[in-house]
Design a protein that fits this description.
There is one protein chain. Helices cover 6% and strands 45% of the residues. By secondary structure, it is mainly beta. The strands form two sheets. Strands 2, 4, 5, 6, 9, 10 and 11 form a seven-stranded mixed β-sheet that branches. Strands 1-3-8-7 form a four-stranded antiparallel β-sheet, with no helix packed on it. Strand 4 and strand 5 form a beta hairpin. The model has no long low-confidence stretch (mean pLDDT 95).
Length: 130
């Protein structure tokens, strides 16, 4: 699976951009994840999505209530809608996918998707600054 992330750029504090992750094939059997690497920091998990999870979506505490992950299966595209951005949200945002059984085996059911991602997009830079 090839992934192409887009939608980054310069955003003012409080802004609400939407990132896209276009896949080369269907994601129906995959868990989709969005991750972020801030300058000088390690990559962190933000959100995960699978129709096969009871709650479908998982969010890390730092973005819960501000970010929303979704998928348009007809377009093989995942999205990350971000609201009320802060300067601390600056970083390179990556999308990734992993087969559902692998992610569940490595991360646990409904406990995120950090462990188990197999394919990564190239990342898109989001800079939050006035």
């Amino acid at each position: 699976v090839q992934l192409q992330a887009s939608g980054g750029g310069l955003v003012q504090p409080g802004g609400s951009p939407r990132l896209s992750c276009a896949a080369s094939s269907s994601l129906v059997n995959y868990v989709i994840g969005w991750f972020r690497q801030a300058p000088g920091k390690e990559r962190e998990e933000l959100a995960c999505f699978s129709e096969r999870f009871v709650d479908k979506e998982f969010y890390t505490d730092s973005v819960k209530g501000r970010f929303a992950i979704s998928e348009d299966s007809a377009k093989n595209t995942a999205y990350l809608e971000m609201n009320n951005l802060k300067p601390d949200d600056t970083g390179v945002y990556y999308c990734a996918v992993g087969l559902f059984p692998r992610v569940v085996a490595l991360s646990g059911y409904g406990r995120g998707c950090w462990n188990g991602m197999e394919y990564w997009g190239q990342g898109t830079l989001v800079t939050v600054s006035s």
